[in-house]
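WP5 quarterly update. Target: Alcohol dehydrogenase-like N-terminal domain-containing protein. Source organism: Clonostachys chloroleuca. Length: 206 aa.
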Amino acid sequence: MAIEFTVFKGSTSRAPGLGHEGVGTIVEVGSRVHEISDFKVGDRVGMGWFQKFCGHCKVCVRGRQNLCINNEQFGTANHDQGTFATGIAWDVSALFKVPDGIASEDAGPLMCGGATVWDPLFSNGARAGDRIGIVGIGGLGHLAIQFASKMAFQAVVFSRSESKREEAMSFGATEYHATEGRDSLEGITPVDYLLITANTLPDLTP
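Structure tokens (predicted):
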């Protein structure tokens, strides 16, 4: 809820629709939906921070819709639409079919938190076997470890203390390094990519 309150505090006189990630079942489609997609009534779909992509700008054409300069997104457009509602209207460009094997309560967090860590893992040229450093084991970090492991990367986890070692390893971490009390990371094989999921930027001084 912190994101919702941060976004909307003082930004609108209307009662906003809260919720920026969710899963629902389509009950009605627009008259032209069948022309641009195969979504239909009864489909279970997920939706996240973005509510619409233009589909024709340079980044959309390249498949990087999250960078669309013409997007409509939570907090800046359609203030009455939020995933905590019993019903919402969403553009087909920002809907994603949820596979039958994934429960709705598990799929919901993937629409924002999952997408946040999936994109850098998927879009920056990392290959199987690469060492992906993951800093911070909160909500995003947990997902990053699981994704990295399933994508055949080496998930090299950095956390302040030893308290989350067992948890991180159970999610697929290849290595776990506690940084508290260390003056340097000397002796650790360098990583190929670094994904920072902590809420503060760590000291990256060599």
